[in-house]
Amino acid sequence: MSAIEYVRGLFGNEDQLLLDVRQSIVDREMPAISVSPEVGRYLTQLVKTNGAKKVLEIGALGGYSGICLARGLAEGGTLTSLELEAEYAELAHENMKKAGFGEQVDYRLGEALTSLEKLGEEGAKFDVFFIDADKVNYINYYNWALKLANPGALIVGDNVLQGGRVFDPENNDESTLAIRAFNETIATDDRVDSMLLPIGDGLSVTRVK
Length: 209
Ligand SMILES: C[S@@+](CC[C@H](N)C(=O)[O-])C[C@H]1O[C@@H](n2cnc3c(N)ncnc32)[C@H](O)[C@@H]1O
Known about the structure:
This protein is α/β, with parallel strands linked by helices. The protein has eight helices and seven strands. It has helices at 3-11, 16-27, 37-50, 64-70, 86-98, 112-122, 138-148, 174-188; strands at residues 54-58, 78-83, 105-109, 126-131, 149-158, 192-197, 203-208. α7 links the parallel β4 (126-131) and β5. α3 runs parallel beside α4 and α6 (112-122) packs parallel to α7. S-adenosylmethionine is lined by residues 33-35, 59-61, 64-65, 82-85, 88, 111-112, 132-134.
């Protein structure tokens, strides 16, 4: 048994609601690429520990991570979720309603970079960011998160091990190169404290100083 199988065995149980969300994604023939169960559980814990009232998610899919983030929100807290595909945002919203968070989420459709620019113009600020969309833009999303961050904000990135491709020197595809650059940036940026956890497909947790 690997370490991650042991961790998942102890902490990876999902309630019926989350299982139903995964099934709804399969039923609609959407990609089954929601966060892993243990990452979902950790997202709730991170939001709770931060005391976050404003959370921004980049990449909604069917709402699995959105529910996990919303479960950690402080009283009166809200989630803003950026998604390219209207059909995905629609399912995510449906699932968020089933989870009791329908009134606390604001979906912004379209290219995340465009939505981020708009949020910047609106003067929006956030306590927790969850980056889980196109890998080539992780650095751009990180730079936007720094601009929109309240002091002490957390910037969390999923899939930062890329199934092991980031530490395979032979692998230099576009997404791998982009995530390698992202990991190197957060590891050395003086403005933040960061750590990369080998849970799920790799989760980076960065705290803005
Ligand atoms: C890995 S999935 C997100 C999974 C979701 N966070 C979860 O765990 O429940 C990536 C999502 O990012 C969206 N996406 C990809 N590129 C995007 C872009 N440029 N702007 C906004 N959303 C994008 C995809 O449509 C997809 O729904």
